[in-house]
Amino acid sequence: MSDKSAEEATDLRAAGWRAMRAALPGVFPEGDIDLRDGRLGEDLVDIGLTSVWGALWGREGLAPRDRSLVTLGILIALGAETELKTHVRIGLTNGLTQDEIAEVIYHSSGYTGFPRAVAARTAAREALEG
């Protein structure tokens, strides 16, 4: 890896930590911690930290609240209920109300189908109750 590539990776990692800590306050201790657990696919978390949190959530083009709305819709469409639970909590941190999260679910039913919306509602309820 060239010096420039290493520097860019470090910048994305730092941006990823800033964005992730802002979205999930109190979840991660300060500093650059190692999220690897020594098990299969352990690098996936680090990939997400730099590519999703650093390169996407760290961008200035949308406010975190808007990114949460978009992300919720995408996760509902994908049927990704595990990630949806986390992003319901992130959406609340980013200023969404429970009523707005419900509206995203209602709206998605017209585009993703009723079963996906019901699964999303179940996941959101679990996230809000847990």
TrEMBL record:
InterPro entries: 4CMD/NDH-1_regulator, AhpD-like, CMD-like. It comes from the Bacteria. GO terms for molecular function: peroxiredoxin activity. It holds the Pfam family CMD. Residues 53-126 form the Carboxymuconolactone decarboxylase-like domain. This is Carboxymuconolactone decarboxylase.
